[in-house]
Amino acid sequence: MMKHFYLFFALLCFSVTFSAQTSTTVTFSVDMNGETVSPEGVHIAGGFQEWDPVATELTDDDMDGIYTFSLDVVGPALLEFKFINGNSWDFVEDVPGACQVEVSGNDNRFLFVTGIDDAVEYSVCYESCAACGMSTVRFRVDMSQETVSALGVHVAGSFQGWDPSTTELYDVDGDMIYETIQSFIPDSTQSIVFKFVNGNSWLDPNENLLGSDCEDGNGNRLLPLDGENVIMSVAGTATPVCYNSCGSCVSPTSVTFRVDMTTQAAVSENGVHVAGNFQGWSPGSTPLNDSDGDGIWEVVLEMAPGNYEFKFINGNDWGGNGAGNIDNENPAGDCIENGNRTLVVGEEAMVYEACYNNCPGVACMPDPDAADITFRVNMADEETSLDGVYIIGSFTSPAWQSGAVALSDTDGDDVWEITTVVSGAAEVFYKFTNGDPFPGGEADYTVEESGSVMGADSVEVTFESEGCGVPNGFGAFNRLHTRSGASEILDIVCYNSCSDCGADGINTVTGVDIKIFPNPADNNVMVSVNNQLNSADITITDSGGRIVYEIKDSNLSGQVNINVSDFSPGIYQITLLSSDNLSLVKRLVVQ
User: Fold this and answer.
1) b (16+ CB within 10 A) / e for 98-120
2) DSSP classification of residue 373
3) Fewer C-beta neighbours within 10 Å, C or N terminus of the chain?
4) Residues near 11 by Cβ (< 8 Å), separated by ≥ 6?
């Protein structure tokens, strides 16, 4: 008999007893109709063949775009594997978190072969959890506050006919988090309604969420399908939901955010907001208020214990764009990591209080007087854009890309400069751009300094390590100048360096240029090098500096195709380090 499986997680927990081991023919099928198939073919690599990206090719004999491979497996056995559009790890797929072995950790696909069936087929769309056109949800519920029924924990809903007995969840590692992976064809609402059942019939306890934020009006859970592959969790977090609750089983803590705006020249007509990883980094979603008019704005939030990063915003837009918006803060000090404020929430209620643009405990000081500052950058080591050289920063109006100011080189010595009046905070955050950073009214992050290069000794050199800048919170660095309130002429610096050209000794790539396109990207991005490098590593880091993609010893004589469809929208940094310890850094924007 042949069975087609679109969900496999539950099988991990089956207790299977055999009088003898049996063999099962497993057929792997991957639909490549939405992909440009490599001339090297489609391959599979896994523990069953020593993770060799070349050895096992799938075939498409009937030319329907679906590639297959079969092997005999003696069950029971757990198989881990990945598909590859090509024959090297450079072209391995990004497996969605909804069908990885672990949500955060082991990112391989998996299939548990029980040994009961003669044949099993694993059928998915490339880089998805199920067949093309299907949606997948990884259901997770925390049962730590419940006495779990001997009949198990089940989920019933619109996606499976509201049967409380057929879809069981399992606690694989004994942490009281019960899970199952389910795939189905979504209806026109692009959402599902369901509830968890502590047992396996409607006579057993089941959830009633009537009146809560996550229900459909009838007490059932409502989950929007905002992608093909969804991991169910508490809104805005990665935490599993608590049984019969929209939130976590961990009791929330009352946190008061309080920011003193009295030192600011003006407060936005759109108010003051806080944004962080606890609410999706939305600059306009969480307003503070100043009901007594004392210039101190605050909001009280209920937050699960944990570690957080955040910023205050003078307005409701990151860049100060839009009527009435001013800027977001860029404080410097011990309270900052990755360019953001940090906060550790425990079980006790707490107050976070600071002056805008300062760490807690630092006295609120009035801003220095407005004064002229001359900014100068040496472009001698760059191929200067025909669009010119610009400066962007916290001091322009509006701030950053949309308020970019053009520099000039009137004497043709490759030193570009601008003198402008700067007011507001003492700390001035800025960077130079080689080209227009706001063409056609849209931000272009690829033309700005990254603030990071790789030295000849393979040690990263940054604006922060060299003492002229700080992390910007998006995987790169901003320059930082603390102004005095008097007129100043700043030292000449080489583009993307803290010192003048030729003075820092950094061995960077010359005569070689790396291009990434399209940029911004939402699916695939091509990395192209204009000169042959025998071997190089490509690393992509996210805004928190975490490595999200890495290629080792890649031949860059042509193009490298990288799939970014599962990357979260944001700004990423691509670093190329050759075998000669030469480096290039480019910015990638994922939509």
Assistant:
1) bbbbebeeebbbbbbbebebeeb
2) E
3) N
4) 111, 112, 114
Q: Which residue shows structure tokens 């030319």?
A: 63
Distance CA 176, CA 142 (A): 6
The two three-digit tokens of residue 66, written as one number: 């679906």
Name the E strands within 346-487.
350-355, 371-378, 389-393, 405-406, 415-422, 427-434, 452-454, 460-462, 469-471, 477-482
CB of 159 within 8 A of CB of 166?
A: no
**Is the pTM for the entire model greater than 0.85?**
no
> What are the tokens at 230?
């969804």
- For residue 226, the 8-state DSSP code is -
Domain annotation for the chain: domains and CATH numbers: 2-125 (2.60.40.10), 135-242 (2.60.40.10), 260-355 (2.60.40), 371-494 (2.60.40.10), 514-590 (2.60.40.10)
Strand partners, 432: 391
Closest-CA residue to 189 (of 144, 225, 236): 225
Pairing label, strands 306-314, 336-337: unpaired
- Tens-place pLDDT, residues 189-218: 889 999 999 999 999 999 999 999 899 999
- List CB contacts of 589: < 8 A, sequence separation 6 or more: 445, 446, 519, 520, 521, 570, 571, 572
Q: For residue 451, with 0-12 CB atoms within 10 Å meaning exposed, 13-18 middle and 19 or more buried, which class applies?
A: buried
Nearest to 98 by CA among 131, 67, 147, 135: 135
CA atoms within 13 A on the CB side of 133: 5
Predicted confidence (pLDDT) per residue in 69-126, tens digit: 999 999 888 999 999 999 988 788 989 889 988 876 678 999 999 888 899 999 999 9
Cβ 253 vs Cβ 348: under 8 Å: yes
Nearest partner of 377 among 338, 333, 407, 419, judged by Cα: 407
244 with 205: CB under 8 angstroms?
Answer: no
Residue of 17, 22, 19 lying closest to 115 (CA atoms):
22
| Longest Cα separation, the chain | 88
| Residue 490: alpha-carbon gap to chain centroid | 36
Of 241, 292, 307, 298, the residue nearest 274 (C-alpha): 298
Instruction: Name the CA radius of gyration of the chain, rounded.
Output: 27
- Residue given tokens 């990207």 in the structure block: 521
Structure tokens at 151: 């009949």
